[in-house]
Amino acid sequence: MAQSPISSAQTQILLCPEDHRPEGSITFSKVTEPDGQIRYLIGLPASEPLPPLCQLVETVPVATTHIVAANMFSGSTIPPSSSTILLEGDRDKRGVFVPNCVEPAEEISPQQSTDLEIESFDEAGGNCIKRSARRTGNVPPRSGWVWQPSFWQATPVDSELEKLSAWGIKSVYIFIPMEEHRVIIEAEKLSQFISNASRKGIRVYAVDGDPTAIMPKYHEIYVRRTQTYVEYNNSISEDARLAGIQYDIEPYSLPGFWLNPEIYYANHVQLLQKLKASATDLKIEAAVPTSYLMNPHAKGLTFLNEIRGLIDTLVVMDYRTDQGKIIAQA
Fold first, then answer.
1. Is the pTM of this model over 0.85?
2. What is the rounded CA–CA span in Å between residue 192 and residue 181?
3. What is the per-residue pLDDT across 299-317, written as a single tens digit (0 to 9) for each?
4. What DSSP letter does each residue of 202-264 carry, written as one string?
5. Shortest CA distance to 67 belongs to which of 26, 96, 32?
6. Three-class secondary structure of residue 286 per DSSP
7. For a tag site, which of 1, 60, 221, 242 has the least CB within 10 Å?
8. Cβ pair 193, 154 in contact under 8 A
9. 232 with 269: CB under 8 angstroms?
């Protein structure tokens, strides 16, 4: 069997207490254990020893620098299969993961889809040296998600918007912080960002939500946040208005969801009913995973049918880069 070109580079994905994260490690996310204990999901080269009080989640055959993000649905009581790791790179014809190429053979416009072919490898470093690309035609407009408010609060914002345009992004979803869920922080910068984005043909949506949002005791918080978005739109010129709100709630990450998903779905439907009533003419989107249809025991199809009249758009979290796989999963 041919050896993987990246077999020499490996990374340990670890769960560690905050004060036991070793020097040289990369922190990906914070994980709250069922007992309330906080630990961190980190990356560490496999050549380094396992730090004290750290738990190995899994080992991946790539260098730490080629891991874009990592997260877990819950704490260390969840098996490693519940971890999510996002890698930066491509797969060759054998299906082997290869980090991004150092020198593309041709500059490819992000406005167009491409069929990439890995041509050669740096066997020692695990990097591809060269790749060729064949343009296969235009792709639908892209969307982007930015959870850091500093992205749109930056002054000036033109350079950030230029990046979005260069990547072919026509809709951007941003997180908007509020004081007590009633007052938008940096509202003037928000309106300026949306106005500038509008001039470049980019629609701006608020992205909001948390797994705990479906709990009835938290419904009023998200109703109030929705009302704040509406009040902002009503107070501003049309070119600076939000195009809508996307609720990314993901209740399946809560401990206990899979024991009785119907209860969680029912709470989710009730929340969306309240948000729909509060949003008036502001468009509402809901983000859902592909597993809602793929897992027959999750009752996801029933949930999707129940929310059809409560949302304007359904966003499927279909994390694939291959067009054929995206369509198949969707």
1. no
2. 21
3. 788 898 899 999 999 998 8
4. -EEEEEE--GGGGSGGGHHHHHHHHHHHHHHHHTS-GGGS--EEEE---GGGSTTGGG-HHHH
5. 26
6. strand
7. 1
8. no
9. no
* 315: nearest Cα among 276, 282, 283, 287: 287
What is the rounded distance in angstroms from the CA atom of residue 242 to the CA atom of residue 86? 29
Q: Looking at residue 79, what DSSP letter applies?
A: -
Cα 166 from chain centroid (whole Å): 20
CA distance 156 to 167: 19
Sign of dihedral through CA atoms 294, 299, 303, 306? Answer: positive
Instruction: Please say whether the beta carbons of 169 and 202 come within 8 A.
Output: yes
Spatial distance between the Cα atoms of 145 and 174, rounded to a whole number of angstroms: 6
3-state helix, strand, coil in the chain (%, to 5): 30, 30, 35
Q: How far apart are CA 103 and CA 156, in angstroms?
A: 31
> What are the pLDDT digits (tens) for 224-250?
999 999 999 999 999 999 999 999 999
Are 58 and 83 contacting, i.e. CB atoms less than 8 angstroms apart? yes
Cβ contact 115:88 at 8 Å: no
